[in-house]
Amino acid sequence: LQGAAAQCGVNCANIELPQNDTxxxxxxxxxxxxxxxxxxxxxxxxxxxxxxxxxxxxxxAPDNLDxxxxxxxxxxxxxxxxxxxxxPSQLVKGYLLSNGKWACTSDxxxxxxxxxxx
Length: 118
Prior knowledge:
two-stranded antiparallel ribbon; 8 strands
């Protein structure tokens, strides 16, 4: 076979997530992915991408001939938003929580970025 005929393939099988990832990742855009196709993997609410708009990626090989072969995928970096995180019982030295916003105490400098990692 030559040319376009050599590039034929079959759709990849849907991605089957491990049980502990089913609440975190949305792989539905990769369902029935055609050979040679690409898809986005997103975070499932309440999780959000650590960097807004940076989704994970999935792909199905252009020469896939195995209908049971799942798409290859790279997950996005998903975090729980700060508002969904439990508050620490004691604040670490140098940090201040005021009106729901994190900041440095007056004897410390820098920018505080709250991040809740599951």
